[in-house]
Amino acid sequence: MFTVLDFETTGLDYNKEQVIEIAAKRLNDKLEVVDSFYTMVALNEGKTLTPFISELTGITAKDLKRGMPEGEAMELLKRFIGDSIVVAQFASFDLSFLSKVLKPKKYICTRSLSRLINPTEKAGLADLVERYGVKLDGHHRAMNDVDATIEVFKIMKDIADERELEYMNVIVDSSERPLRYLPLYVNVVFM
């Protein structure tokens, strides 16, 4: 089983910022969606949403008033994930926030997978959906990003498996976007 997840957050530093939106879908071994999880997350006491994040995501502080507390949301996500393989577009980022409640033993970074397949090509989600002809409406909304990540993951997993590439727990580090967090059991590849 796989769990494809995405967080929208108040910023990049998992030590200072918080999750504001969570989306996840569980896939079976045939990569078919079998379950989903979604929630908005209320802002923690004293935390504000910057105009930049609101502009990027379309999420407002008013939207988050009906969200659940971050700790509760993350515990529910932890239960949803269970012992499945976590898949995320930029796993180092998402796993940094997830690490507050869960440090998965197995994970796949689709950004890193893309770099292993096409080392000279850009590996952002917008780049991948364009390259592989996948639809992405509302980029930087968690469920939209999860849906697009699932589709590019299916395509790239087939390519990587055919080429016999090792990608489980592989995170590609680069000077263009240095890693801020290293998950457990990581195999870092510098490109």
Defining key terms:
DNA polymerase III subunit epsilon, two-stranded parallel ribbon, five-stranded mixed beta sheet, alpha/beta, 191 residues, Nucleotidyltransferase, domain 5, 7 strands, 7 helices
Structure in words:
Residues 1-162 form the Exonuclease domain. This protein has 191 residues and is α/β, with parallel strands linked by helices. It has a single domain (2-190), classed as Nucleotidyltransferase, domain 5. The chain is 36% helix and 21% strand. The chain has seven helices and seven strands. It has helices at 51-57, 61-64, 70-81, 91-98, 110-117, 125-132, 142-162; strands at residues 2-9, 19-27, 33-40, 85-88, 107-109, 170-173, 187-190. It is globular. The relative contact order is 0.17.
